[in-house]
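User: My collaborator sent over this chain with a note saying "see what the structure looks like." That's all I know about it. Can you take a look?
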Amino acid sequence: MNLLVYAKTEKEYMKHFRYMMHVCEVGHSMAEQLVQGNEPTRLIGQNLAQVGQNRAQVGQNLDSVGHDLASVGLDRSPESTRHPFAAYFIKNWDNCRELWCAHKRQNTVTLGNNTNNRLEASWKQLKEWVNSFMAVDECIASIMYYQSLQERRFMDDVYKKVNIQHFGYDREMTLVANLVSEHACELIHDQYVYALGRASYTFSERSPGVFFVKSTCADDDALDEENTEYTVTKLNWTCSCLFMSTRLLPCRHVFFLRRALEKETVSPTQLLNRRWLLSSVRSSIEFENANDTSTTMESFAIRRVLAADERPWDSNRKYREALPIATTICDSMAGLGMVQYREAMAYLKYVARRFKNGEYNISSSYLPPEE
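Assistant: Without extra context I'll predict from the sequence alone. Here is the result:
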């Protein structure tokens, strides 16, 4: 019973429970067979073999924690249990493990006296620092120390949520990760790793501030074809490659060139496009000069861009324009009562006849004659 009470996991509890049920079953069956006059030696040998088989079966079934005992050949009903103790245990104790099993009461606050007060539910962590045998000054010091630890953990959590940390990023990529979105950071990281790794380029400044970068890498996994040439403008660090032209993010050519020119940083974070910036830090970064007024809002007038088409419509255009109106009429008629529906249908038939005859001057107050 002590093994069942202090089992730390449900797996361990089920192991001891099966063993107890097996012992009860073996002892009870042996007693019955001895009373009936069977040979004791043969019974002991058979039951010992059965114990070995059941022990192997228990080892195989240890992974099936939480399954019903019926799945391992045990019935919880007292009627099918042979031993009286097994019937008593299943009826009165096994159905309420939450009240006495240690593995079911791990989250229960006891404060050393096995109580289960709902007001003590938040004191479980505090019990690790304070107990009933400490003096008052020791309790105060321990509680204050525990409070300082919680404040540090809270600040660490806030820092982790505000500042992105990635084990595969260096100092520069960590800075970029806190400026742009996650998707943009992944795109930049692929270019960054290639430029600082297996990339092979030659460059030359044929005109002031304009560099021509040519790929010399012939590997199959190279991001550029061999002898492909791109232009990089030093003023704003823009490249003519497809990656930077379409996604507006720093490319591998810019990273390689800035590293070769021994710039302070490989990634030009001050020139990142506004479309990729996080909203939390967008207001704290200046991307444009004070004289740049390209983003200022100007008033504008709304006017028709294209003149109205006065040409006659074809039959398909006429059908498309009239179909939504007819559909609206049908939808409205579907929700009417039978009396109103018959009146609306009679009026609709009358309108259809007028349209068929070419009479379109129908007054809104006109009522069709009764048929």
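A starting point for your reply to your collaborator: The first strand starts at residue 201 and ends at 207.
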